[in-house]
Amino acid sequence: MRQFGYPRGIAGRMAGWVMAHRRSNRQRNRWVVALLEVQPTDQVLEIGFGPGLAIAALAGRANQGQVYGIDHSKVMVGQASRRNAAAIRAHRVHLAHATLDRLPSFDEPLDAILAVNSVGFWADPAQRLQDLRRLLRPAGRIALATQPRYPGATADTTVRAAHELQDLLTQAGFTQLRVETLGLDPPVACVLATNPPK
Ligand SMILES: C[S@@+](CC[C@H](N)C(=O)[O-])C[C@H]1O[C@@H](n2cnc3c(N)ncnc32)[C@H](O)[C@@H]1O
Q1: How much distance in Å is there from the Cα of 128 to the middle of ligand 1?
Q2: Quick one: which of 171, 125, 162 has its CA closest to 5?
Q3: What are the strands, taking DSSP E only, across 12-160?
Q4: Model confidence over 20-74: pLDDT tens digits?
Q5: What confidence tens digit (pLDDT) does each residue in 88-142 have?
Q6: Ligand 1: distance of its center to the CA of 198 in Å?
Q7: Mind listing the domains of the chain with CATH numbers?
Q8: Residues with beta carbon inside 6 Å of ligand 1?
């Protein structure tokens, strides 16, 4: 599990390969990006992009905007950069080796933020979500998705994880929460929320 939270070395490269090729992972990332309803001119940030599946889907949608990503794993920055090389060369995708507690700054407020199976690894997630909310424009959107992967995880585990995400988002000041579920085994929950309009 540690390798999925902070992929390093050869084991980290293998974890990245698994995340990039597992069918459910691919489906989950595509689904979350579709739920976020990214518009062509959007500025979007992904936290913990791993091998970069959602980054590729975001770049396909925000094709006149900008897609940013941060991940604290150098191995994942390498894999995601190779996967998205053309969009990076075109200056439409920008991937940084960075941790969430040292967020880079952005020239303009962001339209949307997402994190897929990443929040569970964050220290002080309520504080981190407050920091992320400050990067969003008023009425900007966030999507946090979770598919519990540990042995024995069930649909109930997903429901509990979704409740935790809702609590964290509410504590961080997000509103208009909505939960969507994708029927994989175990199911994926995606909690969508909004930075309150001014
Ligand atoms: C389980 S992987 C999920 C990867 C990808 N989102 C996916 O669904 O395929 C979690 C990712 O979050 C990243 N991560 C975890 N905590 C982080 C933090 N505090 N700052 C930046 N990245 C983080 C890890 O390096 C890893 O790439």
Answers
A1: 14
A2: 125
A3: 43-47, 66-71, 93-97, 110-116, 136-146
A4: 999 999 999 999 999 999 999 999 999 999 999 999 999 999 999 999 999 999 9
A5: 999 999 999 999 999 999 999 999 999 999 999 999 999 999 999 999 999 999 9
A6: 31
A7: 2-194 (3.40.50.150)
A8: 4-7, 19, 25, 29, 47-50, 53, 70-73, 76, 99-100, 116-118, 121-122
